[in-house]
Amino acid sequence: MKTEQGMLRISIAVTVLVAALGILFGILSGSSAIIFDGVYAMTDAAMTIVALLVSGLIASSVTLGAKGRLAKHFTMGFWHLEPMVLGLNGALLTGAAIYALIDAVVSIMHGGRPLEFGQAIIYAVITTAVTVAMAIITGRANRTIQSDFVELDAKAWVMSAGLNFSLLIAFGVGYFIQGSGHDWLSPYIDPIALAIVCLIIIPIPAGTMRQALADILLVTPPDLKHHVDEVAKEVSKRHGFLSYRAYVARVGRGRQIELYFIVSEDTPAKKLQQWDQIRDEVGAAIGDEGPDRWLTIAFTTDPGWAD
């Protein structure tokens, strides 16, 4: 549980187990809310598997052996796959919730559906305990791992825990009103619970989808651009450069930075080692050196090469 891929593997195994329980208990109890919970979990598991594959590709791309095999087709790495997976995950989960919400509304309009509350309560108790435990474990693990994939997975477990607890309350209410003067409400418990769950779920992936779209479109992160501008201004002033051009993008966990310094034609000639020293100076000032930083620094007397 100390690595991104290890945490995702554990999450996949538990999610598949919860999904299978949901589909089984949903069929036995006649609950569309439980069936949706299982299908939702299965969809999440499938996307987590894709996230695990992408995570493995990103990790392997920084090793020399993997670079030799994969450089022919992916010379720029695999960072661009991460926002695609995150965006697709959010879109699929949102789409499933919208479909289930429509089904719940139709069911309410047709008088609801009968439900075996005893089996539904057993399912809700089990899954609430499992999802709460996974939410805590995943959240704590990501304090060290610092992964967007694990962060999204932790949010999913928190959301699942809250939803399963809500189902437990709803099914408990339905169980106790049976045989009472409010027994006519019991057929509506399941579709109303499903509708409430869907209304809660639909907006949650919005933030992840928005960030993923920004990464796919290479929208410039303002904070990173400001930091790079400050470094470039200081370097230009110190070395007497005329100006600079900075291009910055966030692609998943990757940070892509291109810096072009405009040098006067009258600048005394320097050895290549001296230009490399300036590059080292700029790289150190920007910081965050590592496999997820793609930094290009060039010097030219022609602004046309920088624009």
Descriptive labels:
3 strands, 3-stranded mixed beta sheet, elongated, 307 residues, mainly alpha, Alpha-Beta Plaits, Alpha-lytic protease prodomain-like, 68% helix
Overview of this protein structure:
The two termini are 46 Å apart. The protein is elongated and about 95 Å long. It has helices spanning 4-29, 32-60, 64-70, 81-109, 117-145, 148-177, 186-201, 206-216, 222-239, 272-286, and strands at 243-251, 254-262, 293-300. The mean pLDDT is 85. The chain has two domains: 4-216, Cation efflux protein transmembrane domain (Alpha-lytic protease prodomain-like, Up-down Bundle), CATH 1.20.1510.10; 222-305, Cation efflux protein, cytoplasmic domain (Alpha-Beta Plaits), CATH 3.30.70.1350. The longest helix has 30 residues, at 148-177. By secondary structure, it is mostly helical. The protein has ten helices and three strands, in the order αααααααααββαβ. Helix 10 (272-286) links the parallel strand 2 (254-262) and strand 3 (293-300). It has a three-stranded mixed beta sheet.
Unreliably modeled segments: none
The CATH fourth-level homologous superfamily of the largest domain: Cation efflux protein transmembrane domain
Radius of gyration: 26 Å
How many distinct domains?
2
Structural class: mainly alpha
* CATH-assigned fold name of the largest domain: Alpha-lytic protease prodomain-like
User: Which whole number gives the mean pLDDT?
Assistant: 85
Count of helices?
A: 10
Helix content: 55-70%
**H-E string:** HHHHHHHHHEEHE
Give the biggest sheet: 3 strands, mixed
Shape: elongated
User: Strand arrangement, largest sheet?
Assistant: 1-2-3
What is the CATH domain class of the largest domain?
Answer: Mainly Alpha
How many individual β-strands? 3
Percentage of residues in DSSP E strands: 5-15%
| C-alpha end-to-end distance | 46 Å
